[in-house]
Design goal:
The protein is α/β, with parallel strands linked by helices. The protein has two domains: 206 residues, Spore Coat Polysaccharide Biosynthesis Protein SpsA, Chain A (Alpha-Beta Complex); 67 residues. It contains eight helices and twelve strands. The chain is globular. It starts with a strand and ends with a helix.
Length: 286
């Protein structure tokens, strides 16, 4: 049984190092770190920061640079393609570089898949800001997240940390329309629509810093988050009527969201990025 892990790095060599250390002694065969920094100095710093781990790790550690920042989904697809072409593994662990696995996380996730052969993808509980988040349910009509399943929602597994069987890896695995945020929601929806079982494993935990390569309230985060909501409204609607309803509801919810975040951060950035995201999205469909 071969288990590979994939980590995307973006000017976060210290975080990536901590993530790698947390994956020691967890029966991983190979770990590939794909550097999305698109900066030679940043990649050299990543190499220097992880040099000792190459010798000390019980897994093969591979570092690969990208010439451009291709985003989360496309980066993960690129790494998965590399494995499937050069060194196929039985399982793939996708984990954020600002996340740290608990001592038995990988083992418990693998044990769950071994005892539940029909389950194709799992995620651990997420410990963030001293709060434990088992899983969420994404409401298709509104785009809101709920702790418990309600009518019109589906189980959503966070891309912060996922373990999946190679049998479900087809390309593109992640929808590359998303640059960052939303691709894990679309993936969870698509897999379940295809009849696959995905589950959250309660006895496995990952510690997640959250918003590792962006800043909440900043332009990048606000823009990408709104864009993700708009893309999901389009992709999860299977007819024009639903698409009209989804966009209408999100228009209201995203405006309220921008107002609350502008008040929280004492900034007009959420409003500006809301308008920019809408404008850019409309321009792409015209």
């Amino acid at each position: 049984m071969k288990i590979a892990a994939i980590i995307l790095n973006y000017f976060g060599e210290q975080k990536t190092r901590k993530c790698l250390i947390s994956l020691q002694k967890q029966k991983l065969t190979t770990v590939l770190v794909l550097d999305n920094s698109a900066d030679l100095n940043a990649f050299k710093l990543l190499e220097e920061t992880t040099a000792d781990l190459i010798e000390q790790s019980d897994f093969r550690l591979i570092l690969q640079p990208n010439t451009t920042n291709v985003g989360f989904g496309k980066g993960m697809n690129q790494a998965l393609r590399w494995f499937e072409t050069h060194s196929p593994h039985n399982f793939y662990l996708l984990i954020n570089n600002d996340a740290e696995a608990d001592l038995q996380m990988v083992n418990n996730l693998i044990d769950w898949l071994n005892t539940h052969p029909k389950t194709m993808m799992v995620s651990p509980q997420i410990l963030s800001n001293h709060q434990l988040f088992p899983c969420f349910y994404y409401h298709i009509s509104t785009g809101l997240l709920f702790r418990n399943k309600i009518r019109g929602s589906f189980l959503y597994l966070s891309g912060c940390c996922l373990l999946l069987r190679k049998e479900i890896v087809t390309f593109p695995f992640f929808d590359e329309t998303f640059f960052m945020y939303g691709e894990d929601t679309e993936l969870s929806w698509r897999l379940q629509k295809q009849g696959h079982i995905i589950e959250n494993v309660m006895n496995a935990t990952v510690i997640h810093e959250g918003v590792g390569s962006s800043t909440k309230g900043g332009e990048f985060y606000e823009y990408q988050m709104v864009t993700a909501h708009l893309l999901l409204a389009h992709k999860l609607a299977d007819n024009y009527l639903k698409s009209f309803i989804f966009f209408g509801l999100r228009s209201i919810i995203l405006t309220i969201r921008a107002f609350l975040r502008a008040f929280r951060y004492r900034s007009l950035v959420p409003f500006k990025m809301l308008l920019k995201a809408w404008k850019n999205y409309i321009s792409t469909i015209n």
